Amino acid sequence: MPKEIELDKLRYGTELLKRGFAKMQKGGVIMDVTNAEQAGIAEDAGAVAVMALEKVPADIRSQGGVARMADPKKIQEIMDAVTIPVMAKCRIGHFVEAQALEALGVDMIDESEVLTPADPFYHIDKRKFKVPFVCGCRNLGEAVRRIWEGAAMIRTKGEAGTGNVVEAVRHMRIVMGSIEHLSRLGDDELYILAEEYTQSYAKSAQQILGREIDGNTPVFGEYLYDDIKEEIFGILKEIRQIKRLPVVNFAAGGIATPADAALMMQLGSDGVFVGSGIFKSSDPEKRARAIVEAVAHFDEPEVIAEVSKDIGEAMPGLEIKSLEVKLQERGW
Amino acid sequence: MVRIGVISVQGDVSEHLISAKRAMEDFGIVGEVVAVRRLRDIEGVDALIIPGGESTTISRIMKREGLMDRIRELHEERDIPIMGTCAGCIILAKEARDGEVDGLKLMDMRVRRNAFGRQRESFETSVEVEGFDSPFHAVFIRAPIIEAIWGRCRAIAKLNDRIVGAVDGRKIALTFHPELTSDYRFHRMFLEMI
Q1: Least CB-CB distance to A24: which of B120, B134, B141?
Q2: Rounded CA gap, A91 and A98, in Å?
Q3: How far is B95 from chain A, CA to nearest CA, in Å?
């Protein structure tokens, strides 16, 4: 006979729920939107989620100045307009913006380099939140640190607002290549790598404390250097074993065409974010649909060819060398 | 030789591929688990799983692929067993409240999407399941509920007074995600329907 169980014992905001939410996004396209109408277009096109913004990255880039969390009223409008999940961005290290977004009820927070960083030393301690986070990375070290800090999803940084996919490809290849490399490392070498990846926290703590740190120094919130190193070693061992990141890994930053999206999928992405690429193009509705199709059929060239026909002008692209500000260099 | 197909257009497909495979091994069933992305992948499948994900996205792609029509035919011809989790549950329902999803309409039930709220209202808990001798640890992510059932559809799992699991002939609908844990009792129930 079944035992009496307490049905009201519900657990919220666990690691399993955060990572589980991210897994439900796999094979999907997450689109940047700036109002309810765009959110509706994204949902109708088959987006799995939308990113609610005040300005798309291309406009943030061209207008300059300090980019902050969007107006919560704007985010709320978008949340009210669609039934798919709504994500929003906070600045790197700005845990109060993150608290506000959590209070608002967004489904995932992007601690994003597209906004101006708020903390020169630390990213947010994402384990303290019940809402899941996604974070950008350029390499495996950044990915592992964000995962250790509690990110439930990782994405490439790419170079947002450029319509140029080259940096997203660079970051995905570097992450995938490093994962491949782990399989050839023994525990000793892996431990050295864990130590290397933990240095970033040590460096920040040294600057703040103005002294050398040791294994027992708290270097990120209350967490001690040695403990972080051991836990990062644990994450690396897991990656070596499962041959992928232990969280969902998306592509972002510069994806502008259906073929770009399919390229990132063929390189091993679990899904894609499209920022300025849709609503800075000449026919957002068609392009949004085409990119969704291209992600669903990323390894079928006939489909990519078909959906790429007659979808209007892509957003104007930018050469990376010509950029005054590289957003990907924010965060560490 | 049993062949299980997992609808693989979007969502937590790899979790389903892995858990179906493990469940078959655990129960000593010889067979394979295949990803169904295109119409041609579905031929020769003995049973189907529809994963969690975004029901709006999954149903749109399934429809465009012609998978909806083909699955309805397989239901008519052979009454193939289908298990749907979360989004899959919505796609199996005759009626889905809030219109966006045009699904398979194979189970006599009405579901409500995002019935508990947004991600912050997602939760884990134990649920009692008809025929299981201990509670099942269930993971609910922006989960739907089954608001009403009729005909031969019956509730098999409840959370307080809310229906979170139902069986209609050889179709199983769960509003949570057994593929995210390693308890394969629902998979056993599903495999026994073949």
Answers
A1: B141
A2: 8
A3: 17
Residues of B in contact with A3 (CB under 8 A): 134-135
Name the one residue in this structure whose structure tokens are 């905001």.
Answer: A13
A2, A43, A84 member nearest B128 (Cβ)? A2
Helices (H) and strands (E) in chain B, counts: 5, 12
What is the reported pTM?
0.96
Q: What are the C-alpha distances in Å from B57 to residues A30, A85, A292?
A: 11, 12, 9
Provide the residue-wise pLDDT of chain A in tens; the chain has 332 residues: 344 445 558 999 999 999 999 999 999 999 999 999 999 999 999 999 999 999 899 998 889 889 999 999 999 999 999 999 999 999 999 999 999 999 999 999 999 999 999 999 999 999 999 999 999 999 999 999 999 999 999 999 999 999 999 999 999 999 999 999 999 999 999 999 999 999 999 999 999 999 999 999 999 999 999 999 999 999 999 999 999 999 999 999 999 999 999 999 999 999 999 989 999 999 999 999 999 999 999 999 999 999 999 999 999 889 998 898 899 999 98
Compare all CA atoms of chain B with the CA of A46 and give the residue at the minimum distance.
B57
Q: Where are the domains of chain B?
A: 2-191
Architecture field, domain B2-191:
3-Layer(aba) Sandwich (3.40)
**Residue A247, phi then psi, degrees to nearest 5:** -125, 170
Q: Could you tell me how many CB contacts below 8 A there are between chain A and chain B?
A: 133
ipTM exceeding 0.90, yes/no: yes
Dmax over CA atoms of chain B, in Å, equals 43
